[in-house]
Amino acid sequence: MSSAAARAFLTSHTTLRGACVRTRSRVSHRTGVGTEPSSISPNPKRSSTIAMASAASAVPHRVGDTFRVKGLRLTDHFFDVPLDHGFRPPGVGDVPADHSRTIEIFAREVVAADKRDDDSIASMPWLVFLQGGPGFECARLTETGGWIAHAVGSHRVLLLDQRGTGRSSRVSASGLAKLDGGVDARAAHLTYFRADSIVADAECVRKTLLGPGDDAKWALLGQSFGGFCIARYLSVAAGSVSEAFLTGGLPPLVHEANAAEATYRALIERVRTQNAKFYRRFPGDVQRVRDVVSFVRNQPGGRVATPSGGELTVRGIQALGFSWLGTSGGMESLHYLFEKAWELPHEELSYAFLKSCEDVHSFDTNPLYACLHESIYCNGGGPSAWAAERVFNEHRKTFSADNALGSSDPRKPVLFTGEMVFPFMFDEIAALKPFKNVADALAAKTDWPALYDVDALARCDTPVACASYVEDMFVDFDLATETASRIGPNGARVWSTSEYMHSGVREDGARILKKLMEMARDEEPLR
């Protein structure tokens, strides 16, 4: 779910350069902008989310370019899907999807370059990759490798740019500003970009590519937030899934209507542990970080201008732990960042440092990540009400930079925060300032649709295998374990390991996917 982590879960040789497509329908494929719905009257005959998911149908589809990268052949696909799939809060009742307003979904088919027989390719099962996030597109492959190399040995792989990202009607500040109706309309528009709609899109794509038959199933691989999407998929359309593999992606507290605050309370303890490990590895950084924090705190207004027109404050420095504290190579990157902090020691921060502080979050290219982050824990309830900020305030004594700098112990470190979106970011990060009022409206939303159906998860007979990382800073291991126990009559198969951080699929994807496939198929027996 992290920004840096979410970007590179295919191979270590990827780049993220999403292209825009031309407008071809009432909603812009470039921005995902459309006319907002009128208010919806309560429906006395509540439709279940399962019924709505099964109502997904084939949609208009076109095939784009086919090209090769080293070891792979890639084919582009485009699908027109409803902007609004009809999901509504509990007590209101779902409504039919509105096919009059559509957005475009982009997906890239991946097959091994040495598979040239179209008939044999057509007979191969599909494996759909659901990306981490929320709000990130799939990585752009430059060659085979990692889990993808293992997958294409037996599957046609489909890399799905989730709605609002990449080439799937990307959401942007300029596009959102074009919406009529002000803040409320813009916030309402973004509610269509959660896991429920992503899964409904996938079902439309499945029925378009595979047909309506009962045996037209595909396999799923979900990393981080992609695993949250799989839990949604298994809640509403498990019969469409032949097998499912989750890596660092078991959502917490699926039985709770609003899990945001409890989740962050668990995660902040993981963040504290990662801070201790970081400073143990790089003890010299205690003073380096203190020096930078002290310098920024003492500037007029306690802030330094950043290259894009934003501001760096003490809280902004602490937020540099966002993804770097909990991914492979992340601690090293954080250390190297502070190595280049100064243009003139204790007098001027370097451009390289300030630019890197802006780049760490990727909010400029992927604003959905910030706007919708807390909503992924809203499961029929709300509001999230800036849950991460509330939990931070509960631990303010521990995480207070003022306390660290004012301590009689000069070796007391300033602690970083983890994958948490805070209100101050929308005041200080230039790319997020246009979204401030929208983010506040989403944080105040009380009536989110439900995402998970615990009864349906318990009945699920789809083979499910999960890699769960004991020291994961993004998805709490204990809460993930509890969720795994709720999937299927005997619980999902879980590989619990401390070999990897949250970015395990990037580190050793082929091994992880192979093991999960063996577990799901009972080729690796229970023991």
What does this structure look like?
- The protein folds into two domains: 3-254 and 451-520, 3-Layer(aba) Sandwich (Rossmann fold); 260-443, no CATH class.
- The chain contains 23 helices and 15 strands.
- It has helices at residues 3-6, 49-54, 118-122, 146-151, 173-177, 182-190, 195-210, 225-236, 260-281, 285-297, 314-318, 321-324, 330-339, 351-359, 368-371, 387-394, 396-399, 401-406, 425-428, 436-443, 454-459, 477-484, 504-520, and strands spanning 14-15, 61-69, 72-84, 98-112, 126-130, 140-141, 156-160, 218-223, 241-247, 304-305, 311-312, 342-344, 348-349, 464-469, 493-497.
- The strands form four sheets. It has a nine-stranded mixed β-sheet with strand order 2-3-4-7-5-8-9-14-15. A two-stranded antiparallel sheet has the order 1-6.
- Strand 2 (61-69) and strand 3 form a beta hairpin.
- The chain is globular.
- Mean pLDDT is 90; it is low at 3-51.
Biggest sheet record: 9 strands, mixed
Please name the fourth-level CATH homologous superfamily of the largest domain: Alpha/Beta hydrolase fold, catalytic domain
- In the CATH scheme, the class of the largest domain would be Alpha Beta
Sheet/helix structural class: alpha/beta
**Spatial arrangement of strands, main beta sheet:** 2-3-4-7-5-8-9-14-15
Termini separation: 31 Å
Described by the principal axes of the CA atoms, the overall outline is globular
What portion of the residues fall into strands of 2 or more residues? 15-25%
Number of strands: 15
Helix content: 25-40%
What is the CATH architecture term of the largest domain? 3-Layer(aba) Sandwich
Q: Would you tell me which CATH topology of the largest domain applies? A: Rossmann fold
Q: Which ranges are low-confidence, i.e. pLDDT below 50, for 5 or more consecutive residues?
A: 3-51
- The tally of helices reads 23
Mean pLDDT: 90
- Based on CA atoms alone, the radius of gyration comes out at 23 Å
